[in-house]
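Supplementary notes for students who missed Thursday's class. We covered one full example, reproduced here. Read the sequence, then the structure, then the short commentary at the end.
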Amino acid sequence: MRYISILLLIIPASLMAQDQCVDGRYMQDPLFSAADIWISPNVLYASAYDQNGVLRDLMLDVYQPATTVDPLEARPLVIMVHGGGLLGGDKGSQLSVFLCTELAKRGYVAASVNYRLGWQQLGTCNGDTASLSRARYRAQQDVHAAIRFLEEKSGEYLIDTNYIFMAGSSVGATLSLLAAFSSEEDYDPMLVEELGALDSNGNPYADHDRAIAGVFGTGIGMDKPWLLDRNDTPVMCFHGTCDFTVPYVEGPLFYCYEPVQYINFYGSRYLADHMRETGHPYRIYTNERGGHDAVDSLTLLEQAIPFLRSVLCEEPESKEIYEFHVDGCIVNRMDSVELDIHPNPVQEVLSVTIGSGSTGTAVIEIFNSIGQQVLYYEEAFYAPVREMEIILPPAMEERGIYFLRVRIQESVGMETFMKW
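Structure (token representation):
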């Protein structure tokens, strides 16, 4: 596999204190061993009624360095929200335990949260979407209750409430995003009337501002991308282009069109493009052949660590990382971009047929085998097809394998070719 990392811009420093930006802490190498981590399991943070009217106790697990090895009195907090489609999943999932343990070993406090589950999924693409909306709202209430609880207990768990980060996978990533950007007014008033207030349900700790320092997650998406304009909280998205659950770009959840069309979601590619256009600090890690899990747990940790530290050090930067594979795919509701390079291998001029149902500006890029961008330009494209000749630049003098990527609106095509 090959990677490309593109630094796009640097965001000016914010007004938050820099006390947590210290050498040797919150880095790739752990400060502490697993034996140095205290785990407080099954901490009751709220109680709330589930879809069947049963009062449920809601629990979280807290991971933190032992005070015997770490004297710091206030540490950044990462709250991990598991996935599972609002039907399953648990705070004790392999990913949640791994991530919380590893972050605690690097000096963070980490918490893994359970929340209410359950909706009427009657079969493939035949679920009750109203039931799904209620399940999402209940889960959002619970995540907010967990944040309030941990802020209230910050002295007990040695939490620096200036730096509370959200993390999640799948629906947990969506809940994490919405914790940072949404408010009660963004939800159907009928849901609020039926299920109660968003920010005072489940526990008595209502007087907290829920300020989130940053969000990262895998298979991330949301139905209202304009909510990202509410504030400049940095976001890091991880997504596989072959995700059949949450679209990489845009489409209904689970790609369900019939017999019931599910809520339309905007995935990592769409969100990253939106944030780039609005100057919002973001990072995106694209796995060209990845599924809904997007990346393995170790890659997630390795990429999340510098993202978190960039926020702690008031240096959030927008960055795109693309993991190349042969015969990758882009799963998307929109028309795909089809590329036909002829002949292949190529000498001095690349001839390509571009096909797409979208009309707009074609962003044309070529990368070499180690992920370096060697060509970039934009050209008008009118559906459905266009023949194009691209004169290869001096940066492509060397023979070898190259990658052509063309993006038209939200649609993306990628093709590998040989330069002679």
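Commentary. The chain has two domains: 2-324, 338-419. The helical segments are 94-105, 129-152, 154-157, 171-181, 189-195, 268-278, 297-312. If anything here is unclear, bring it to office hours.
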